[in-house]
Amino acid sequence: MKLIDALWKDAPLATRGEITPKLGFLLTVLLAIVWLIPFLWMGVATLRPASDGINAMAELMPSLKPTLDNIRDAWEIGDFPRYTLNTTIICTGILLVQFVTITLAGFAFARLDFAGKTLIFYLFLMQLMLVPVLLIVPNLKLVAQLGLYDTLTGVMMPFFASAFGTFLMRQAFEAIPTELEDAALIDGASLFQRIRHIYVPLSMPSFSAFAIISVTSHWNDFLWPLMVINSPDKRPLTVGLSVFTKTAEGTQAWGTIAAGTLMVIAPLLVTFLVFQKRFISSFVTSGIK
Amino acid sequence: MSLAEPAALPVATSAAPRLHILKRFSNRFKASLPAYLLLLPSLVFLALFTYGAMGRVVIDALYQRATPKAPVRFVGLENISAVLADPAFTGAVVNNLIYAVGTAVPSIGLALLFALALSRTHAVNSALRAALFLPVLIPMVAASALFLFIFLPNVGLLDYYIGRLLPVLPNWLGDPDIALYAIMIITVWKNAGYYMLFFLAGLQAVPEDVMEAAHLDGAGPYQRLRHIILPELKPTFLFVTVIAILNAVTQVDHVFVMTQGGPSNSTNLVLFYIYQQAVEHYDVGKASAATLLTLAALMGLTALSFRTMANREGGP
Predict the structure, then answer these.
(1) pLDDT at A233 > cutoff 90
(2) Residue B179 is part of which domain span?
(3) Which of B38, B117, B145 lies nearest to residue A28, judging by beta carbons?
(4) Which among A134, A153, A224 is the top mutation candidate for probing chain B, defined by the most B β-carbons within 10 Å of its own β-carbon?
(5) ABC transmembrane type-1 domain spans which residues (chain B) (predicted)?
(6) Residue A187: what are its φ and ψ, rounded to 5°?
């Protein structure tokens, strides 16, 4: 009770005696623990030796004889370095092209007046709802017609334009004082020079927020790469993990599955724990990816 | 007003306007050209993969092949009626509706609870927020791999710890009556932390002085929630509901990994049905018809939420 009182010491005096908020808080703590259990199990099961047997597999108490065998097995069964490389290429490729498209489009919406602005704004806005994953059937056909079936470029292409990124950059650019641009204009800077040397450098926080959202969401994409990619050596992590899980499930190798899952999510989890504040504030701006 | 102006104005405005419409239009276009060039890269990809794709769906939905190798022939609305008559599709629609309500309501409710409990920022709350947010980051495929074991009959985590309390151990993913609810648990676990962030942001907007006045008037926690906090959070609710419904339609990775739509189609969702038609049955016509129906439903949702979304993005 002392601990809870300490947590409430900055709450308004009138509410400090209330019991309901504290019950809500306790419930939330309980649920947060439940929320962490799958991660806890993943860690414990990864280190559990196969000799403990299937009946001890669910035990959340760590094994007394921890082993790295599961990690080694997962590493050997699944081609995780290759999957990681593919996912990295996909995320980087998408992000680099998106940086160009959203900067240019964001600038047009923020600073230029043009005929049909409202119409084009709504065309972009609709894309927030018509997420590419819904259009997998026609887009697969198009990617095949472009000769990009079973290529990483084919996986990336539908995401090159981003309405969310465009709106984010528009907002960032609108906050930049026009006087800065006017000064550059007097010095004879061209449109692209003004974007490159004034708008982009001053909008780095928005770029990094967008990068976080874009990379996490495409790191996790599954259905679309599953449809586009056919060759095993071009699989991204998610597709690789699903194939790996199918194989290991057949032999009831749950320790290996836990180890494989851990390898897939470790990069994201570590990055999140390091840049926690950044992640949270980026996701708040996201809404729809 | 000076004396010179009235004489000058009528001359300027009385010049034949009709001749100038074309010229004004082309001037306006010329002035807009730089903006169009900047928008071009984005518009090309939007045209190819969003609006072009919608057009192709409409066309593909009108054609059918007798066999996978046969040439396409025009069948009109036959694909649509075939999809609507397919019990697998109607079943998937019903499942998806149950799934949408059964995931949106609990995850939004929990998100609100989490946000209310953790709204004040200090180290303990930050750690708890991070714990609740972790599932948001990981791929649905990874979450599914973990939950495959959690739901594993007899030796899985759930049966090992909770199953002992039940008289009969349920087969979580194998029983057609339970499987859809098991799938929903994963979605709630994965998304509640995400929606929590929007409620946390929304709670920042609740004015301090109103809350203080409520304290002075002796309003209890329930009254403050009902009469101050919830009305203030209304836009957040709208926005989060839209995202939750959108997620219910577009997130089907766990169905793929855990159940393949089974047992006996009890966990089949619309997008997974579309995937099956296209990839497993090579039936592009039916897959397109199903996509078209889904898009139509989503357009309805879009129409309802357009104002919310446009305002959120700062208007045109």
Answers:
(1) yes
(2) 78-312
(3) B117
(4) A134
(5) 93-305
(6) -75, 0
